[in-house]
Target: Nucleoside diphosphate kinase
Amino acid sequence: MSERTLVLIKPDAVRRGLTGEVLGRLERKGLRIDAAELRTMDAALADAHYAEHVAKPFYPPLKEFMTSGPLLALVVSGDEAIAVVRALSGATDARQAAPGTIRGDFGLSNRENLIHASDSTASAEREIALWFPKL
Ligand code: CMP
Model:
């Protein structure tokens, strides 16, 4: 079944010139890019996007990192897009992510892990509404 998911190509990937690499992997897989915007997350959007994490100890440095520079926000669609993008992304901790995945190939951190992808249909719709309210 076709689904939509929110993807953030994070500030570390933009700084390192890996935006095209990450976007290319999504496109070559056969996923569709429905929306794309280069944008810097502000504090309010960070708190809303990461609502389930705001009270966690890792949140302050995560917020600092995610608001540190531009990221590329995308709406991506395709058959089972939520699970497919998470599989392409690899494990959250890039040190443990499998080679062949985006995080496994390019990351060495739990925080600077290049990509965010919605983890369920409910979070995809919530996150798309936050980032792209007109879609
Ligand atoms: P993301 O998919 O953006 O969603 C939540 C983020 O929190 C996650 O990617 C990680 O980058 C970050 N994260 C999760 N757990 C930890 C942790 N234990 N320490 C640091 N960052 C974390």
Summary: Residues 53, 58, 62, 92, 110-111, 113, 116 surround adenosine-3',5'-cyclic-monophosphate (CB under 6 Å).
